[in-house]
Amino acid sequence: MALPISHYMVRTLFVLSSEDSASSARALMAQHELHYLPVVDENQLVGVVSDSALAKLTGEHDRVADALTADVTEVVPTIPLTEILALMQEHQLSSVVVTGESGIEGVFTLTDAMRDFGEMLEQATER
Fold first, then answer.
1. CA distance linking residue 102 with residue 12, whole number of Å
2. What mean pLDDT is reported for the chain?
3. What is the CATH code of the structural domain delimited by 5-126?
4. 3-state secondary structure of 40
5. What share of the chain has pLDDT > 70, as a percent?
6. Is residue 1 over pLDDT 70?
7. Which strands form 74-75's sheet, in the order they lie side by side?
C-alpha cells in the first residue's frame, strides 16, 4: 500500500505574503533550510516562491510578488506519493502545495522526492 503524500511532505509552518520583502523571505528560507514557500494574501493561496527565484532579485525594494509563481498545483494530503510523482512528471512541476481542511499543510518538492527515493533505496539494500 502506497503511503500518502502527507508522510513525505515538508510540513509548512511558514508562509509569505506577496508584499513581504525579498530579502526577509530569503533570510527566512535560509534560516529554516527551505527551498519553496507558499505565498498567501488575505487567507488565500496566491502562489509559491522558490529560493532560486528570490536569489535573482537584487533591489532593496523587491517584493515576494516579483518572484512568485502564481500557477500553483494544490493536492490533498491523502493522495499517494506515486500519484503525486506522476502528476509532477506529467506537468513538469518542481513543487506542489498540500492543502487540507485546516488550510496549507505542507509543500512537496523534487528535492523531497529525491531525498525520499534515496531513503527507500537505502532501506531496500539493507534487507
1. 12
2. 90
3. 3.10.580.10
4. strand
5. 98
6. no
7. 10-11, 103-109, 95-100, 74-75
Q: For 18, which DSSP code?
A: T
Residue 26, phi then psi, degrees to nearest 5: -60, -45
Overall pTM > 0.70:
yes
- Whether 53 and 67 have beta carbons less than 8 Å apart is answered as yes
Q: Which of 52, 47, 63 is nearest to 29 (CA)?
A: 52
Share of the chain above pLDDT 90, in %: 67
> 48-68 b/e with 16+ CB inside 10 Å = b?
bbbbebbeebeeeebbbbebb
- Supply the DSSP string of 25-61, one letter for each residue: HHHHHHHTT-SEEEEEETTEEEEEEEHHHHHT---TT
Provide the residue type at 14 as one letter. Answer: F
Domains of the chain by residue range: 5-126
Beta bridge partners of 10: 107
Side chain identity, residue 94? S
Q: Which sign, positive or negative, has the C-alpha torsion 73, 69, 25, 56? A: positive
